[in-house]
Amino acid sequence: MDISIFLSIAKLEFLVYPLLYTFNSHIIIINLINNHRFSAHFFFKYTQLLLKFTVGIFLSLFYFFCVS
Known about the structure:
mainly alpha; 90% helix; elongated
């Protein structure tokens, strides 16, 4: 068996997963902004999701430049 097929699949998974994670966090942030008034609880949830969003972007960039 050719191992390059498995390596390309692994690279694709490393690229796609952080992007999906980022996209899901972004949708949740948009829904939170549209559906909630600004409060301390909202601010905590918003900053937590914003952190996940940022981490997802950095992970996808890291995997794109370093793994591929």
